[in-house]
Amino acid sequence: MCMSNELMLGYFDVKDRTQLIVDASPIGLGAVLIQLKESDPRVISYASKSLSDIEKRYAQTEKDPLALVWGTERFHYYLYGREFELITDHKPLEIIFGNNSRPCARNERWVLRLQSYKYKVIYRPGKSNIADPISRLAVMEKDPRHTFDDHAEHYVNWVVSQAVPVALKLEEIKCQSEVDAVIQAVKISLNQNLWADEAAPFKVFATELCFAGDILVRGNRIVMPESLRKQTLDLAHEGHPGMTQMKQRLRSKVWWPKIDVQVDAYVKNCRGCMLVAAPAPPEPMKRRELPSEPWQHVAIDFMGPLPSGHNLLVVVDYYSRYVEIEIMKKIDAAETIKRLQVIFARFELPISITADNGPQFDCAEMKDFCKVHNFHLNSTIPYWPQQNGEVERQNRTILKRLIISQNTGRNWMEDLNYFLLMYRATPHSTTLRSPAEMLFGHNIRDKLPNIQAPMEIDEEVADRDKEMKEKGKQYSDKRRHAKESDIEVGDEVLAKLMCRVNKLSPVFEPSTYKVIDKKGGDVLIESLDSGKKYRRNISHLQKINSNNSDETDSQFDATEATAASDVDIEPRQTGRIIKKPIRYTCFVEDFTD
């Protein structure tokens, strides 16, 4: 329904729905207060106002907010304390007077002026706005210099003066803004609402832009001309603030399109800031592939020194994660090579070892050792321990156990062995198998009870082992004239004298012992004199027979008789013919002649 046909005004009813329709033309403002009762509108009052010379230079995004504020305060007695609707044909006003708006300085002040009212801004097309003709038929003010809100102009001028950088003068900004083509294009675009290409970056912020004289302002910040931006960045970077601080410093006073990008580039190119900047982030991690077999590739490193003066040489297998530790006092190249030889002899020679650039590893002796034993030494990047992460992670684990041992008053060397036993028998979180099982093919026993599955034995190896052991037994028994002993439990025996004092010492001790236990060649005897028990091999015992004394005497007499008869008997000649060597024949004949 066209509201312009209403000929009469109605009375205001506090119970009816209230609307205020406003509009702004190039020369004036118009406002119509209406109420609706069961969708039947009635006009309560009309109002209009002409614009001053200063207000006529406002952009359209400032004239319409001015009409909204002026109309609301014009009908203050009707609208204060009750909810009403503000009808406008300017779509941006819904955003400017919204909850999350960031308007320019002038509009921001007007938004604050309406905070005491309960209103809702509603957009309607201009063809249905009945306040439009009233704004164009406004009576001119007697004093065109007088503005509706003089305080707003003072506020904008104050914002501009406070936002000027310390070393830049307001006159200089004004002069450069007048000759800046982009700022002048923005000024034309705001007045005509037709945005040229050079002013396109400012279109998004159109609701926040306004002019204070010839200076462009966004909110409470000055838009710097392009010719002064480099100088502004130089001033803002005095004291070498970081990117964040420099942006905050600039945002509080000035602005221009892509200011954040320029600040980032400025700080990154500052030589002084580069000297104290944080290191570059690391590249994506490159994981080492699992070797095909155990002990092909190992990592080594020293941990220490400890309070006791010791250092730990830690060796880790990349395949099984098996750890070997050597406790060392000296950690020079010679001692390190000696310990590595022991470890490599215990397992095998690896294909490569990875170590840092310590003097023990980066020396001619270590390089010669690697060359002689045909394995490669991989040196990590200096000051980058992450490259040898496998052994560095083990060092951290070992260090925790040493700290616990140190602070509980225990022997850290013993606790280190307990840790190694535990670690080697515990399934690893990555492989889900214990390091010992990965290295040896079977798990090792520790203090915890365990049911181990029997290992599959190679029958061919077992048969050959049995055959060779039987051959060795037969050969050794024949060579040693071995035979089953007749010593039994309860027999009395003589024990071999293990430490002979001199050559006249007897073979067996004179004391008599009694056999109290026998398990094959393992015999337990007890002294009949002292009652002490001794463990001996059966070869170290001589059985005492009951008629041993008579036999001994007869053997002694026979020995003496034989010795006496030997004195009278002449040596017996053998039948062997002795021939002279042929090579001595001529010599003997010549000598005889």
In short:
The protein is α/β, with parallel strands linked by helices. It is 37% helix and 18% strand.
Offer a few descriptive terms.
single chain, 593 residues, alpha/beta, five-stranded mixed β-sheet, elongated, disordered N terminus, disordered C terminus
Uncertain regions spanning at least 5 consecutive residues: 1-5, 558-571, 587-593
Query: How many H/I helices?
Result: 21
Backbone structural class: alpha/beta
> C-alpha Rg, in Å?
55 Å
The chain-level mean pLDDT equals 83
The outline comes out as elongated
Biggest sheet, in brief?
A: 5 strands, mixed
Strand percent estimate: 15-25%
Distance between the termini: 173 Å
Question: What helical percentage do the residues reach?
Answer: 25-40%
Number of strands: 19
Largest sheet: spatial strand order: 3-2-1-4-5
Folded structure, characterized:
- By secondary structure, the protein is an alpha/beta fold.
- Residues 1-5, 558-571 and 587-593 have low confidence and may be disordered.
- It has 21 helices and 19 strands.
- The strands form 4 sheets. Strands 3-2-1-4-5 form a 5-stranded mixed β-sheet. It has a 5-stranded mixed β-sheet with strand order 12-11-10-13-14, sandwiched between helices. A 5-stranded antiparallel β-sheet has the order 18-17-16-15-19, with no helix packed on it.
- The chain has helices spanning 53-56, 60-74, 76-79, 93-96, 105-113, 132-136, 150-163, 170-179, 181-192, 229-236, 243-251, 259-268, 271-275, 333-346, 364-372, 389-407, 412-425, 435-440, 459-480, 548-568, 585-592, and strands spanning 17-24, 28-37, 40-50, 83-88, 118-123, 209-212, 215-218, 221-223, 254-255, 297-303, 311-317, 323-328, 352-355, 376-379, 492-495, 513-519, 522-527, 533-537, 541-543.
